[in-house]
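User: I'll paste a sequence; please echo it back and then give the predicted structure.

Assistant: Echoing your sequence first, then the prediction.
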Amino acid sequence: MVLSELPLRQAAVVAAVDARTPNDPVARRLRELGFVAGEPVEVVAAGPLGREPLLVQVGFTRFALRRIEAARVRLRSGSGAGA
């Protein structure tokens, strides 16, 4: 499952961020923001039109992501440490 498909308020854990090219700037930025393997994540809210943007919490920080960016974050189900 990917982050853009995660139902609201369901806990999950980041498995990986998919890079589409070598040194992919979007994947690199997502990792810099904290989307790294083992981090707890959940979708807190979604925008009204097309469910965009997504308000995502990773660890204790919240970010607004476009669905195309969230689709880069692969998940494993279950709660993580500190969730």
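The mean pLDDT is 92. The chain is about 15% helix and 35% strand.
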